[in-house]
Design brief:
three-stranded antiparallel β-sheet, five-stranded mixed β-sheet, Immunoglobulin-like, mainly beta, single chain
C-alpha cells in the first residue's frame, strides 16, 4: 500500500502544501553484488518555498557522492556497482536514510531502508552503463492517491 504524507504551511487562514512524501517503498532490499541499485526518495514540493536538498545517510554517516554512488536530482540514490568486500571492510550493506530539507522550513525523514547484499547474479548483468540510464530517472513520480 502506498500513502502520501502532506506537510502544510499555515499563514492566517491560508494553508499551502510544502511537501508531499510518498510512503510505501520497501524498507528492506536485497541487492546483488556488482549490480546497480536505485533507492527512491520520492517527494513533491512547493517551489515557492525553494527546491529540496536530498541527503542520504548510510549507518548514520552522510553518503559521499562519487562516480560509483550518486544522488540524482529527483532524490534517488543510485549505486552503479554494489560492493561487498568484507575482508577489506568495504560494503554497501547497511541502513540508509533519505532526508529532504527545504531551506527556511526544515527537514523531513522521507525513507529508511535496510540493504543486504546477495552474491553475484548468475547472468551477465555485471556490465555497467557508462551513464545513468534514462529509464531509472523517468519512472519516479507520485500520484496523490492511496493504492491498496
Amino acid at each position: 500500500m502506498f500513502k502520501i504524507l502532506l506537510f502544510y504551511f499555515f499563514s492566517g487562514d491560508n494553508a499551502q502544501t510544502l511537501l508531499s512524501v510518498k510512503t510505501g517503498d520497501p524498507d528492506y532490499v536485497i541487492a546483488h553484488k556488482n549490480c546497480a541499485l536505485a533507492l527512491n526518495c520520492s517527494v513533491l514540493y512547493n517551489a515557492s518555498f525553494g527546491y529540496p536538498r536530498f541527503t542520504w545517510l548510510k549507518n548514520g554517516a552522510p553518503v559521499e557522492d562519487s562516480r560509483r554512488v550518486h544522488v540524482l536530482e529527483n532524490g534517488t540514490l543510485f549505486i552503479r556497482r554494489v560492493l561487498h568486500k568484507l575482508k577489506k571492510d568495504v560494503t554497501d550493506q547497511g541502513t540508509y536514510r533519505c532526508i529532504v530539507e527545504l531551506s527556511e522550513v526544515g527537514k523531513v525523514i522521507v525513507r529508511d531502508v535496510k540493504v543486504d547484499i546477495a552474491g553475484e547474479k548468475p547472468w551477465s548483468e555485471t556490465e555497467f552503463p557508462a551513464i545513468i540510464p534514462q529509464s531509472l530517472t523517468s519512472f519516479i513520480g507520485v500520484a496523490m492517491v492511496e493504492l491498496t
